[in-house]
């Protein structure tokens, strides 16, 4: 076939396709053409906000600008329950200003029906002792109460977590600190629990439910993380520190539980940074291992923060060995550490002679000790 015939065939085919397309549009039923035009207009012009709803919210004192910023779609709804929600919350003891603040920060709250609100409140009252407690939690974190609309799932999660031995006090903490736990499906929470139970058995543990309870009690965020993340962190801890099964089991039931929900890369980066810092100060690998195992917060504090706190103490003539023995002095903010070091310097405090326990104390105890130092000079 010649080149000219190929070009001619392509032109014929293309032209025919265009003619067919035009014909299809031309002879398309009128109602379909009208539907297409209206659909295009609908896509171009957003649905108008509900003027009546806006007026109601303004009367309730709601911050409309905040609503538009957070959940603007709510303002376009035709059926809402803003007045019912206000009456419900005020009936539980919430002030008018509190109701306005709750709606402003979590606008979808006005989509919940009265029956839903009553049922959810009943479920929460199984955990909290008084309505006033719930009002305080909802005021502080509206999302914790209104985020999920599935009361049946909430009830099942409460029953499931209670079956693990978690007390009302522990459920209270979960609900106020990590409310997404109760928005998870029961099956999702069960997967994490089963992973932790398997870990317990694989490490020689005999009480899997107690093991799970200990971890959840120390890390309330564990159930809203992926099982992959938790499994990878457990494997990293055992490999990085060359732990026996018994050592790892004890670590996970203790302070080690606090780092299980962190990003794997974050944990590895912070471990490497802490290791390099301590080794640069003459610490052995064993020192590094003991420091991190005894003080796991070193893995979730930022590398820069940890370095600055250590340097601050060293500059005040605190020995690195003293820090290794009492790493809890690093719990305080860098400003608090500097302030205390300055006060102790004025009092002529000798860290080599008297140790650094004074730095690891409450504000009240620190001030009392400082007052005694100013009255009775250290010998």
Q: How would you describe this structure to a colleague?
A:
It is a single chain. The chain has 379 residues and is an all-alpha fold. The chain has helices spanning 3-26, 30-44, 51-60, 64-70, 82-91, 96-105, 114-125, 131-140, 142-146, 151-163, 168-177, 180-183, 186-202, 208-218, 227-241, 245-253, 264-280, 285-294, 303-315, 320-325, 334-346, 351-354, 363-375. Helix 5 (82-91) packs across helix 6 (96-105). The longest helix is centred in the first third of the chain and has 24 residues, at 3-26. The N and C termini lie far apart (110 Å).
N→C terminal distance = 110 Å
Total number of beta strands: 0
> Count the helices. How many?
23
Residues in helices, as a percent range: 55-70%
The poorly predicted ranges are 21-25
SSE series: HHHHHHHHHHHHHHHHHHHHHHH
Q: Which term fits the overall shape?
A: globular
How would you sum up the major sheet? none
Average pLDDT number: 86
Structural class: mainly alpha
Rg measurement, Å: 31 Å
Strand content: under 5%
Describe the structure in brief.
The chain has 23 helices and no strands.
Layout of SSEs?
Layout: H1 3-26, H2 30-44, H3 51-60, H4 64-70, H5 82-91, H6 96-105, H7 114-125, H8 131-140, H9 142-146, H10 151-163, H11 168-177, H12 180-183, H13 186-202, H14 208-218, H15 227-241, H16 245-253, H17 264-280, H18 285-294, H19 303-315, H20 320-325, H21 334-346, H22 351-354, H23 363-375
Helix pairs in contact: 5-6, 13-14, 17-18, 19-21
């Amino acid at each position: 076939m010649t080149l000219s015939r190929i070009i001619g065939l392509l032109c014929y085919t293309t032209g025919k396709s265009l003619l067919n397309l035009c014909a299809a549009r031309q002879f398309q039923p009128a109602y379909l053409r009208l539907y297409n035009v209206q659909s295009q207009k609908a896509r171009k012009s957003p649905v108008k906000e509900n003027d009546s709803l806006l007026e109601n919210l303004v009367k309730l004192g709601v911050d409309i600008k905040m609503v538009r910023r957070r959940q603007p779609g709510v303002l376009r709804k035709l059926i809402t329950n803003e007045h019912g929600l206000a009456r419900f919350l005020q009936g539980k003891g919430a002030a008018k200003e509190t109701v306005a603040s709750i709606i402003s920060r979590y606008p979808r709250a006005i989509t919940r029906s009265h029956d839903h609100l009553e049922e959810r409140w009943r479920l929460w009252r199984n955990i909290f002792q008084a309505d006033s407690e719930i009002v305080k939690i909802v005021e502080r974190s509206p999302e914790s109460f209104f985020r999920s609309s599935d009361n049946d799932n909430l009830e099942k999660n409460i029953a499931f977590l209670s079956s693990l031995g978690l007390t009302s006090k522990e459920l209270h903490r979960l609900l106020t600190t990590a409310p997404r736990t109760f928005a998870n499906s029961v099956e999702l929470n069960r997967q994490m629990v089963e992973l932790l139970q398997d870990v317990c058995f694989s490490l020689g543990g005999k009480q899997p439910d107690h093991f799970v309870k200990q971890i959840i009690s120390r890390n309330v965020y564990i159930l809203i993380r992926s099982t992959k993340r938790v499994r990878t962190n457990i494997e990293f801890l055992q490999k990085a520190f060359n732990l026996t099964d018994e050592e790892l089991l004890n670590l996970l039931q203790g302070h080690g539980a606090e780092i299980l929900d962190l990003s794997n890369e974050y944990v590895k980066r912070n471990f490497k940074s802490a290791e390099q810092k301590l080794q640069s100060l003459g610490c052995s690998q064993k020192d590094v291992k003991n420091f991190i195992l005894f003080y796991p917060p070193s893995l979730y504090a930022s590398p820069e923060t940890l370095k600055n706190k250590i340097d601050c103490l060293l500059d005040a003539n605190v020995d690195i060995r003293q820090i290794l023995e009492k790493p809890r002095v690093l719990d305080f903010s860098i400003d608090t550490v500097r302030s205390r070091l300055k006060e102790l310097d004025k009092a002529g405090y000798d860290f080599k002679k008297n140790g650094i326990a004074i730095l690891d104390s409450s504000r009240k105890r620190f001030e009392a000790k400082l007052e005694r130092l100013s009255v009775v000079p250290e010998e």
